Amino acid sequence: MAKRRRPTITLDAPPSPPVRPGIVSPRRTVPAAIERPDYAATGQPSSRGSRAVRTADEIDAMRIAGRIAAEVLIDVGKAIAPGVTTDELDRVGHEACISRGAYPSPLNYRGFPKSICSSVNEIICHGIPDSRRLADGDIVNIDVTSFIGGVHGDTNATFLVGEVDPVSRDLVRATNAALHAGIGAVRPGSRVNEIGRAIEASVRGGRYGVVREFIGHGIGDQFHTSLQIPHYYDARHRTVMEPGMTFTIEPMITVGPADLYVWDDDWTAATISGQRCAQFEHTLLVTDDGVEILTLPIGTPPAEVLFAP
Ligand code: MF3
Ligand code: CO
Ligand code: CO
C-alpha cells in the first residue's frame, strides 16, 4: 500500500523556547565630558512642551545625532552571533556611542537601566539587555538612540542570529518594507494618518498584526514629544505634516495577532500568542518636497541593508 503523505503547510515559525528574563549587569557609566539629557540623573524627562517644527540649527544637530545612532546600530549588528549575550551587545552599543561623544539616550530614561533595547523573538520592544545568550535561529531587534548637540536620533533594526526559519525571515522583510511604505507617505501637506494607512496596506495579505500600543513619536531636544505617529490608520490623527517636523516611524509587526502584555519589569512587551515580532525604525525630517531620513550612516549602507535577510 502506498504511503500517504500529509501535505506540509508551515503556518508558524518553528516554536522556540519562550524568552525569560536574565541577570541585568550593573549600570554603565558615561564620561563626565559627555553632554547629558535632562533626565540622565533623575530618570524623569522634563514635561515642558516641545515645538513640532525644528530650527535649522536643531536639524543640523539631528543629522549628526541620527548618523551616530545609525553607525552604533551597525557596530552592534556586527557583534550579533549565536552565544553572545544581549548584555554584551549593550556594552558594544554603549562604547560605540560614547566613543563618538554621544550619550546613549535609553540610559536612565524613565529609569530604563541600559543603553540600548534588545528585543528577542516574541519580545515586541523595550527588552532590557541581560545575561541571556542569543541562540541560533533567534531574531533580535536592537534599538539605538543617541543624544549629542542637545538632540536625539532614534533608529532600530531586526537582525537574524545564525540560520533563521523562512517564516521569521519573511516577517523581518515585511516589517522593513512596512517602515519604508510609511516613509513613502511622508510629505508636507499630507496628514500623519496617511503613514499608518500606508503601513497597513503594505502588510495586508500576510498573516500579520500591527502593534497599536506603541507608536512613532516626535523627537528633537526631547526623546519623545507629544506628536503621535500611529502605525495603523486612525482618522483622528489629522495633524498636517510641515517642513521642519521631525518624528520617528517604527512599526512593530507580529506573526499572528498583535495583542501584548508587559513583563513585571514594567518595560519588556511580549506577544500574548508567543509568536514572533519584528520592528524597524528611522528618524525622519519633513522637507519642502518630501522626506529626509536622518538616521543613515555615511559611507556605508544602513543596518537594514547590510544585514538584510
Ligand atoms: N527607542 C525607543 C523608541 O523607539 C524608546 C526606548 S525608551 C527606553 O521610542 F527607555 F526603553 F529606552
Ligand atoms: Co522611537
Ligand atoms: Co527607538
Q: On the 0-100 scale, what is the average pLDDT?
A: 96
- Count of DSSP strands: 15
- Hetero compounds: 2-amino-4-trifluoromethylsulfanyl-butyric acid, cobalt (II) ion
Radius of gyration: 19 Å
Task: Please state roughly what percent of the residues sit in beta strands, choosing from under 5%, 5-15%, 15-25%, 25-35%, 35-45% or over 45%.
Answer: 15-25%
Straight-line N-to-C gap: 43 Å
Shape, principal axes of CA atoms: globular
- The stretches of 5 or more residues where confidence is low (pLDDT under 50) are none
Tally of helical runs: 5
Helix/strand order, N-terminal first? HHEEEEEHHEEEEEEEEEEH
Largest sheet: 4 strands, antiparallel
CATH topology: Creatine Amidinohydrolase
**What is the percent of helical residues?**
10-25%
CATH architecture: Alpha-Beta Complex
The CATH homologous superfamily:
Creatinase/methionine aminopeptidase superfamily
What is the CATH top level name? Alpha Beta
Count of discrete structural domains: 1
Please identify the structural class as seen in this structure.
alpha+beta
Describe this entry's structure for a reader.
This protein is of the alpha+beta class and 309 residues long. The chain has a single domain, classed as Creatinase/methionine aminopeptidase superfamily (Creatine Amidinohydrolase), CATH 3.90.230.10. Helix content is 23%, strand content 20%. The protein has five helices and 15 strands. Strands 1, 2, 4 and 5 form a four-stranded antiparallel β-sheet that branches. Strands 3-12-11 form a three-stranded antiparallel β-sheet, with no helix packed on it. Helix 1 (56-79) packs antiparallel against helix 2 (86-99) and helix 3 packs antiparallel against helix 4 (193-203). The longest helix has 24 residues, at 56-79. The structure holds 2-amino-4-trifluoromethylsulfanyl-butyric acid and cobalt (II) ion (2 copies).
